[in-house]
Structure formats: structure tokens, C-alpha cells
Amino acid sequence: MRKRRVFRSAVLGATGIALVAGVTTLASATPAPQAAPVALAHPAKAPKPTIVLVNGAWSSSDSWQEVIKPLQAAGYPVVAPPTALRSLSGDSALLASYLQTIQGPIVLVGQSYGGSVITSAATGNPNVKALVYISAFAPDTGENASALTARFPGTHITNDPNAPVPTALTPVPVPYLTPDEKPEIVLYAKAAQYRDLFLSNRVSVATAAELAATQNPVASTALGENTSGEPAWEKIPSWYLVSDDDHLIPPAAERFMATRAHSHIVEANTPHAAQVTNPGIVVDLIERAVAGTR
User: Fold this and answer.
1) Is 88 helix (H, G, I), strand (E, B) or coil?
2) pLDDT value for 180
3) What is the pLDDT of residue 37?
4) What CA–CA distance (Å, rounded) separates 217 from 169?
5) Residue 111 in 3-state DSSP?
6) Which residues pair with 71 in a beta bridge?
7) Contact 71, 49 (CB under 8 A)
8) What percentage of the chain carries pLDDT values higher than 90?
């Protein structure tokens, strides 16, 4: 009897060892659970900047049409608020207020007199990441458009530098006074000279006549009003299209202003209104400015 119990215990003991061994073997054969894969976080794309287009004298927001189309097609928010063309200080203050309503980064583009406006309006606005000058004025403190035009030879706006009003312009009195109670005069570009002055004869006579008919005149005081305060190009990076065939602002004046502002300069065989005749060049420069601020 004792031997049988011993044998039985031995069998049970062996069986227990086998079971334990089997469990051990199964446990070692079962792969350990794998950690769930961690999704890699991709940085969110920065929003495209809003492109703000500012027209100059003797034109309108419509002059940007062929620039607006490809920029919008590329996904940029684009706005072209009209320039009042009544005083540099007033035009700049109005644009500065408008820029405050735009959220996110801004690339600010000015053509001709619009360059003077953006130079003042952008100062102190941290959302403005780049300035783009298209055949434009980029004045320093205490300078005005009229003086910068006359600083270098080559403009077609007058053939008499001593004339009180440039010969390509028609002065028209308006029935109100300036803040300092002087009679106000607005200046229209003469239709017969519009095609040469702004477009260097690169569009048809009919097209030039249409543009001349819808021009916005500029107050004489706006062109003679000096820029006040620090120019925005002192702290904001800038890009500049020098139009080598500009008949209004001498190309030498454009090079001078662009170099002084430490702008990224592109020179092209374009007229003063390059946004009308060569919109592709203008769009390319704007996109360079966008890329340069990322």
C-alpha cells in the first residue's frame, strides 16, 4: 500500500512538473503584445499670407485684375482696396486702419504712388511680413514723390522742369479747401499722353484710351507731401521691380530707392504700369517675397 501511494505521488508529481513545464513552454512561445504604433505628428502648414495690392495715381484697383487672377488660383487671399489719392498722410492712415482688420501674415504690394502709401502704412504692423514695390516710390523720411521723380533725368511727365504743373497733366480745381485752407487741385493725366507715360506704347491705342478714361486723378498735395516717420522698409524686408522702360519714374530713381532700401531687386524691360502689361513678372515677384518670408 505504501509503495502504491508513493508511486501515485510520484506520478502526480511528474504530471505536475509536466503541466508546469507545458505552461512555461506555451508562455514562452506566445509573442509579447506589441505597442500600438505612434502616429507621427506633421507640423501644420503655415497659412498663406493675404496679398494686399495698392494702386497708384492715375489708375485704380482694376489695374490689378490680371495679377489677382493667378494669385487667387494659387490659393492666396487677395484684396485691392482703392487708394483715395487725396493726401499721403490720409491715404496711409486709411490703409493702416484697413490692415488692422486682416488676421495673419500680409504681403503688401504698392505700385507707383502706392509705394509711398505702403511705406508709411506698414510701419509698426507686425503682420506685414514683406513689402513689394512695383515701379514704385520707396521714400525715406522727409521725401515726396515729386522730388524723387525729378531727382534723376528721364521722366516723360514733363518737358519743362520749371513748369508749375507737369506738362503731361491737366490741373482741375475742386470746390473745397485743404486742411490749411488752400484751394485744392487734382491732376488728370492727359489722354493723348497716357499710352506713352504709363504703358510705354505697349498696348493698343484703344486699350490705352479706356484706361485713360477711367483713371483716378491725384491731388497735387499728395504728390508733394513728405513722408513722415520711419519708413517701413527700414525693418520689413522688401522686393522691388525696377522697370527699365518706365517713362514716369526714371529707372535710375527706382534703382536708387531699391538699393537704399536693401531690397531684393529684379530688373525687367517693363513700363511704369507693369501690372497691366506684364502681370506674370509681377506675380512672380510677389511669390518670391512670399517664399522669402517663410
Assistant:
1) helix
2) 67
3) 53
4) 10
5) strand
6) none
7) no
8) 78
Specify whether the CB–CB gap between 195 and 58 falls below 8 A.
no
Query: Domain-by-domain residue ranges, the chain?
Result: 50-153+226-292
Q: For the chain, which ranges sit under pLDDT 70?
A: 1-44, 177-181
Over residues 224-245, the pLDDT tens digits come to: 999 999 999 999 999 999 999 9
- The predicted pLDDT at position 45 comes to 74
130 is written with which cell numbers?
A: 514683406
Locate cell 515729386: which residue? Answer: 146
Angle at 285 between CA 283 and CA 288, to 5 degrees: 110
Return the ∠ at Cα 149 (arms to 145 and 153), rounded to 5°.
170
Q: In CATH, which superfamily holds the domain spanning 50-153+226-292?
A: Alpha/Beta hydrolase fold, catalytic domain (3.40.50.1820)
pLDDT, residue 42, reads 54
**Nine-digit cell at 200?**
510705354
Per-residue CA distances from 156 to 143, 190, 236 (Å): 21, 12, 32
